[in-house]
Write a structure and sequence with these properties.
It is built from 10 helices and 5 strands; from the N terminus they run ααββααβαββααααα. By secondary structure, the chain is an alpha+beta fold.
Length: 241
């Protein structure tokens, strides 16, 4: 594909992703765009792993990626798993005979139509989260001639879009919580005034206290309203900075 046309496509993708209203729609737009813009890609998916939680496929263009990913997560090996933990970009031209992931490769090719796969790690702004953009094909060596710089550009657009969408979702969650529960809003106002923190920081303090005490957010808010303060606030503030 000519370089000028590729640049135009990525510019259009950036504009499209910026307009997506939620994280879910952004993720789906990314995998669909990957299939359209990456030569050889028949399917695409995004895997996210945060902290010690299990791997999750958060967007997919079809059933094949979900089945392939499930095998990777169960066995604990594969291009996606290695891209997330050890590498930047990993490619397999024929999973059935790839010595790097023998158990995964044999099972994936025996139970699905996948033959080739490529995974590119996404560098997310959240230090506790890692992600990967995965490409799949039913043909051998489907990505052998792919210019990895093209995939780098797409992955960069993906990471930026994910960061923006996640921030949008967090802001929406904050607005919904405040609008739906007056007590939470009052408690946030008290913390903002007494601790000189922002609206988002006040909400995070309440959320951290709720998680640590295994109590509902509204109950924590009522404590703040009744006492004017929140026990253990110092540690809570440290965690949001």
């Amino acid at each position: 594909m000519p370089q000028r046309r590729r640049a135009d496509e990525f510019a259009a993708l950036a504009r499209e992703l910026a307009l997506k209203p939620t994280l879910t729609t952004t993720l789906q737009a990314i995998v669909e765009s990957a299939v359209k813009t990456i030569d050889g890609a028949e399917y695409s998916a995004i895997t996210v792993k945060q902290g010690n939680f299990q791997y999750r496929t958060v967007a997919s263009t079809g059933d094949l990626p979900l089945r392939v990913d499930a095998i990777q997560y169960e066995i604990g090996e594969g291009p996606c798993v290695d891209a997330l933990t050890n590498g930047h970009v990993l490619r397999s031209d024929d999973l059935a005979v790839d010595h790097r992931w023998p158990s995964f490769g044999r099972r994936a090719t025996a139970t699905t139509d996948v033959v080739s796969m490529m995974s590119h790690r996404l560098f997310l702004e959240d230090d506790d989260a890692i992600g990967a953009l995965n490409l799949y094909s039913r043909k051998r060596a489907a990505f052998a001639s792919l210019d990895t710089s093209v995939l780098d550009v797409l992955a960069t657009h993906c990471a930026v879009a994910l960061a923006r969408a996640a921030e949008h979702d967090e802001n929406q969650h904050l607005r919904t919580a405040v609008e739906s529960n007056r007590d939470i809003g009052v408690a946030m106002g008290i913390l903002m005034a007494t601790q000189l923190v922002t609206k988002h920081q006040a909400f995070d303090v309440l959320r951290i206290a709720s998680q640590h005490s295994h109590r509902k957010l509204r109950d924590i808010a009522l404590d703040v309203i009744e006492t004017g303060s929140l026990p253990g606030l110092g540690s809570g503030l440290q965690q949001i900075h």
